[in-house]
Amino acid sequence: MKGEAHQAAPLANGPQTNGPHSNAPQTNASSAEATGPSGAAPAPLSIAADGSYAARLVARGRGGGWCPERWTLEGPEPYAVLLPGDQPEEPDSPLVPLADGRVLIGRRTDGRYHFSLLYPSGPDTGELALGAVECERLTLLPPAPDGARVYALAPQAGEGGGTALWLVCGGAFGPELVTVVAGTCSGGAWLDGTGRLLALNRTDASGRTRAVTVDVEHGGEPTELLRIAEDSDDRLLLADYDSGLLVVRSDAPGSERIGWGVLGSHRPVRFPESLHQPGVRMAPFAVRPGQVLMPEHCGVALRLTTVEADWVAVWRPQQRELVHLPAPAGWLAGTGRFTVDGDLLLPCVTPQAPCGVARVPVPDRQPGAAAPAAPREEPREAPAESEADPLHEPARGNESHAPATPTDAPPWAPAHEPAAHEPADATAEAPPGDAGNTGGNGYGNEADAELPPPRIEATGPAAPPRDAAEPTGVTRPVPLQQAPLARTR
Hints:
Helix content: under 10%
Strand order of the largest sheet: 1-9-8-7-6
Order of helices and strands: EHEEEEEEEEEEEEEEEEEEEEEEEEEEEE
Oligomer: single chain
């Protein structure tokens, strides 16, 4: 049977040119470094959960294969250590660094992925075998927030299909099967600091893709996390468990666009115009941590790509515009992280600095750009709201204004003054202060009140019935319009 345990995901690099913004040039590592002797390109860099270490595969000269390289990012200057084994590695061997400095590697041999932990041991490389998982393909997920556990997704063969979720590092007895999720799963983002709730993007038998939540402690059936529209594909791109900020990609507005929401909030998902630029592909890769209960202040780093250029930008929910930044020479495109202070750390490789990290301060707005003028607000009756309600309110102008008519507009293309959705359950009592409230994307109007509201929810195993006993330690599903107005400290 496929998926049996035996005891014992980034963008590729390439040559870049200057972008359309004069302050955003991008150069990259050499093509020989990017592709290596076999012509294949491994992932550019994998970073530990706490940002203390990173790992990648580097070429070992002409025809020498690949060798793991560990970066130490703590301290005044980063440095790299090679972790060579008895034989060269394959370019598709996945690597994940742990918070203790060891590097997890998966080697595919004879239809199995064999996992080991690598670490420096004097002049040699120490290796601790963990076991193997029988499967044809396997993807390592980002490490859990504790920095010690790593999970993997393995598609299942056979009539039932599905995707197996494995704990391949950090278990008591080698790789452990957590659960099998129906459909094809990808992605992977942690929704809580304890590393219990894992979000995956699942494609079902009908081809519909939705983000779901899996409780890795108890397994069981996943619960739906995103449903922005009844017929939309809704993927989770990034999640920050400190603030609750979720960055999503959905075709609910009519075409695929990047939007944002807040986990557990009653506000709908919003699709800012600044995150929709024709001809530019945007891929978020880092979120500023430490912004507890302040998602509107979280900086989101994006890799912007056109046919001519590749550069970096930072977006915040409270801003209208992107802040374009000059990328350092040799940037390992699509990798990086934020400091708690808000600076962006971008790993880079050049012949002069084979292990470098550029610290890029992020200004509040694009240099040289004037502060946005506050739009004139039409007089209307203000709804009664809680004092804490503005916590998740978007900045004015940070909304998606898709053209529509008041009569036949779809729920994602609002009229000028959209009204609030009715709750999915008409008998449920709306929370105080929610009447007349609109999300920044204007989901729904009075003519579309029959449509269910978009919701963001995170749960563990399938929630018990409403009249059952209280759940033990796992948040119950909460539709957006029925969630508390603000979280308590």
